[in-house]
Write a structure and sequence with these properties.
With 382 residues, this protein is mostly beta strands. It has 3 domains: 128 residues, Sandwich (Immunoglobulin-like); 102 residues, Immunoglobulins (Immunoglobulin-like); 116 residues, Gtp Cyclohydrolase I Feedback Regulatory Protein, Chain: K (2-Layer Sandwich). It contains 6 helices and 24 strands. The strands form 5 sheets. A 6-stranded mixed β-sheet has the order 2-10-9-4-5-6, with no helix packed on it. It has a 6-stranded antiparallel β-sheet with strand order 21-22-20-19-24-23, with helices on one face. The chain has a 5-stranded mixed β-sheet with strand order 12-18-17-14-15. The relative contact order is 0.10.
Amino acid sequence: MTRNPLIAAFIILSLSSASYAVKFPRENGITVTGDSFRVGEFASVSCNFIKFKQENINKIEWSISYDGVSTNAFVSHWENANKETINSEYFTIDESSSGEKVVRIRLNDDREDEITICCKVESIRDSGYGMIKAHEKEKCTAVPVESVLISETIQQSKVALIVNNDLVRIGETVRYTCNLDQLRDRGMSFSVLVNNKEMETRPIYRHEDKQLTSSFTITEDIFYEGQGEKFFIVCILKKGEYEISRDTVTVKRDRSSQQIFPTHTQLGADIQTPRKGRFYADPQSHRDHGNVPCHSYIIIEEGSTQGTLIRGELPIDIQGSIKAFVSADSRYETHEDVVNVLNILGYNGYRVVGMGNNLLNRLTWTLERPYFEFHPNAFKNY
């Protein structure tokens, strides 16, 4: 027994810290929906750890072991919600519905009668005395695997995905078609995913249902949810929850120039340099407004990867003053930094009237350019 009180206190604190680290219950530390895996169907696996109030979870690592092979499958980072997914020929992780304590796993074949699932929890605990200590706790469990009887004839079914364009800009429309080669069973269905999010499902009852055609409009969020400069469309053929066939198309962002903007010299000597703000000040451009004052509004938004987005109509000369410009349906995109874009618009008579954040927490600005000073009769009746 030690006689040094400092050493004794340190030992007590260390033992106390260890006793209050992450724990697993004796039973059901890991649970699987249905208590087994059915080949070809997704199952939810839960890591049922217990954490204490002073603890912060850093991450949870999932691993799968079978036939002498052990491999990482999924990592969930709690602080920033980032995810790391490792798929293989044997198993598939549904990243979009996995996170924190739960991972969605599908086994793709019946090579094993049983697999072992492990979840390892990393945590950090503050003892309250300025001592920060990291802890790890792992729990493993064996899960039986059940085969799903799908006839060889049905498994021969193949699906093909066709898109009208795999190089697109913001605001354009992508039209896709899922084609089934042959109707071999009336219990099958189509499922279309964009970036692992289900867009559409439809059962296949008749030969006329062998083709599914639909479309959607490209938004910045689709690239944001994908990989910045590309996203993925997937067509899956299913029998119940069993996946029979899939086809994937990668769609990339088109950064090429859509149109060539004329300079102010090409437009004519009467058109002044945009930075002088003369275009909006020309009364002849607004002579048909009558006694009603007019205002022009646009919204500026930070891009997901770089550059700036502009929503709303812009005069042609202002468009030409913004470099590397792309436009589609009153939605414009440029590599220019958002501050440079705001300065250019400020030189052309726009002023900020509102500022905020969108759902993706990107900064947005509402800009106004008034024309009412060129309509002197507008306020006579006020």
